[in-house]
Amino acid sequence: MTSTVVEYQTVAEPTELKSVAVVGLGYVGLPTALGLHAGGIEVIGIDLSQNRLDAIRAGDVDLIDSDQRQLEKTLHQDFRLTTDSSRMAEADAVLVCVPTGLDEYLMPDLGPLEAACAALVANARPGQTLILTSTSYVGTSQRLLVAPLTAKGFKVGRDIFVASSPERIDPGNVTHTQAGTPRVLGGVTPACTAMAQRVINVLTPAVHCVSSPEAAEMTKLYENTFRAVNIALANEFAEISDGFSIDPIEVIEAAASKPYGFMAFHPGPGVGGHCIPCDPHYLLWQLRATRSNAPLVTQAMHAIAERPKQVVDRLADTLSRNGKGVVGTRVLVVGVTYKPGVRDVRSSSALDIIDLLAAKGAVVGYHDPLAPDVRVTGGSLDSVVEPDGADWDIALIHTVQPGHDYHWLARCPVVVDATYRFDPALFAL
């Protein structure tokens, strides 16, 4: 896909940045807004959900400790929250941080992003810098911002500036913080890149500039497709190792002793959240439109989708070896969030596992101190607050939440560790 060449007369010198509007205050937008505010920028936080804004004001949001402290400080300062999209016209720069998920057919759900960009174009004014941070297909910035802005008479690169800088926020990760993680940035013109860099530099001093928004968009798709392919491979090797009665984690740790040419990925019960299960499908969707294919990526995403079924089959095999079937068996799924230390259950493989077990006739419960209730096919399911391992026939370890006690699992007759790394001795408080 080629970009429309937008002519401009002079490369604008970055001017003083006073205010930034952040559109979408979810797992990306809220930390982004907090990072900008901590950098001395006036922030206008825009989200269409009043419930989300109320939760932010109450501090009832899922953040790492440093961001939670920043939020508590920020709420007493000039940190404006609103559902009014027209307020973005007041800002020197606007960052779009809305979710880009999939529908039930694994097709990109572009509704929130298209709506946010349409509002951005409707409220755009000369001199603004507009940055897409949401992960999407190659050409999103061109189609949703550059083309409609040009149609309105703006000269992109001269009197308004457009760039893509896909987010790199890892929820719950206190090691790789927003400030310490480099960001990729691609502007429509050199002027766009310069104007956008002054914004992104408030969040992190490390900015890797590329030649275009398309290059930045493709970079993010490559990053998460790389992870998806390697996770699928790690899961496959776990199954292969099991067939040889070899511990897959021992093999991974041994391979990781090589100082070059290997990066450790670990098997697990499946993937979830906002990135790995979603982003590669944006690439595959776009390739289908051009009758291109990516067989390796396609197979990896199929393997990832099949992973919950493999976990259920492993549990059924374990029960069979213990002289039991799945029907009527009391199964406790331990942890349902998609990763440790976060409340997020979006696309969590635990939900698929619960549904599959229930469909096979198991009596399924779950325990997760970070997720008091979840929606599954049968309706709402509440977490078992104080489980006793003796009350269940088998426990499936899906997500181990740090700082919580799991000594009670010792009383459970059978435990299947789908993480391959659970050590009960480390979690007995």
Automatic annotation (TrEMBL):
Annotated InterPro entries: 6-PGluconate_DH-like_C_sf, NAD(P)-bd_dom_sf, UDP-Glc/GDP-Man, UDP-Glc/GDP-Man_DH_C, UDP-Glc/GDP-Man_DH_C_sf, UDP-Glc/GDP-Man_DH_dimer, UDP-Glc/GDP-Man_DH_N, UDP_ManNAc/GlcNAc_DH
NCBIfam families xrefs: NDP-sugDHase (TIGR03026)
Entry keyword set: NAD, Oxidoreductase
Pfam family of the protein (one): UDPG_MGDP_dh_C
SMART domains listed in its UniProt record: UDPG_MGDP_dh_C
Name of this chain's protein: Nucleotide sugar dehydrogenase
Superkingdom classification of source: Bacteria
Gene3D superfamilies xrefs: NAD(P)-binding Rossmann-like Domain
Family from the record: Belongs to the UDP-glucose/GDP-mannose dehydrogenase family.
Oxidoreductase as UniProt keyword: yes
Residue span, UDP-glucose/GDP-mannose dehydrogenase C-terminal domain: 332-424
